[in-house]
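Collaborator request log, item 7. Partner lab (contact: R.S.) asked for a structural prediction of C-type lectin domain-containing protein to inform their binding assays.
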Amino acid sequence: MAVRLFITILLLFHQISSSIQQSGQVDQFTSSIDRDEILFGDRRTLKNETQQELVETRGKICELHTEIARKRNETKDKDVEMSRLTAKMAQIEANLMGRIAETKRKNDDLVAQLRTQNTEVRDGKAKIGELEGKINALQSKISGFETQMIRTMTLALDPDGWSYLAKTASWYKVIVQEMTFDQAEAYCASRKGHLVTIQSEEENDLVQKLAKTVHPFHGFWIGLKGNSNKENAFEWTDGSSVDFTNWDPEDSDTNSYTHTYVRFST
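Returned to partner:
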């Protein structure tokens, strides 16, 4: 619009200059009266044209101002919209970051809880295993107590020939019946017992007392025998260690004996 206005003003001055030149040419060929009329007419024409041009120029200037104002309003509206969109995007981003942070916090909490639960499960399994071991041990003891109680009750009902030793909580009896060592061991096992093992002085004294009930020329087997895989080293048939020994030195030659018996001699 500014270029169009400049061109319009330039054309206006060009027309004025042309009119003045034409007036100078008229002055050379006309009289003063005619010249005045011509100049007056030219001035009036020029004035009219100038006014017309000014009116058009003012109109164009108004249009230009209007266009500029409209453009400014559009730009302002766009700036407002851009500001609104920018603020909205910033809010969306802030909300998203907040949700991400919250999700991460919850995830960390879940991971911590899972680790705690896994630790508790492992500890629980360890405790369960420990309790199961204790339960099995108690059940084994209870089973042994039950067996001992049944045996004790049976012997209490028919105590003929049986002797009880409180230290070992066991019953002892001499079976007066001729049999080999293996037969004697099997006989005791068939009755849920075993050949006597001597682990203390009290038990040794009881066995000696029982030996006095047998004929001096006879004896009875005890649960001590040599292990052929260990150069006939003596061991108890119930698997217990041979910690207590109370035999004469001449009777301890393991290369000569594989089984032992007790005999009372006067």
